[in-house]
Amino acid sequence: MLADEPGDVFLRYSLAMEFDKEGQPDASLSRLEELTKEEPPYVPAFFMSGQQLARLGRITEARAMLRDGIDAARQQKDMHAAGEMSELLASLGAAGE
Predict the structure, then answer these.
(1) What's the pLDDT at 97?
(2) Of the four listed, 9, 10, 34, 54, which is most buried by Cβ atoms within 10 Å?
(3) Residue 2 belongs to some domain of the structure
(4) What InterPro entries does UniProt report for this protein, alphabetically (predicted)?
């Protein structure tokens, strides 16, 4: 399907999720990062990246991704996504911890 529609954001997101499920976090994070750079950015990619980075213990990177995602979600008026990412960010604690 992706070969037929290489620009399909949801298909690309789904592929990134499959890489994560198969234990390939670098491949997953790489594809999610591409989606965060789309115009407009694909907001769910920020949240999933933040979750994966946190799970990998890459907390500083997770916080940065979530902050960027909150900004993107607010710009797109997606307050639900902004709220979810804010909750995850708060659960990661302050930057100095």
Answers:
(1) 45
(2) 54
(3) no
(4) TPR-like_helical_dom_sf (IPR011990)
d(C-alpha 97, C-alpha 78), whole Å: 29
CATH code of the domain in which 50 resides? 1.25.40.10
**Quick count: other Cβ atoms within 10 Å of Cβ 77?**
8
Residues 47, 84 contacting (CB under 8 angstroms): yes
Residue (of 14, 11, 16) closest to 1 by Cα position? 11
Residue with tokens 């999933």: 48
Cα torsion 22, 23, 24, 29: sign:
positive
What are the tens digits of pLDDT across the range 14-32?
999 999 999 999 999 999 9
SS3 category, 1: coil
Domain count, the chain: 1
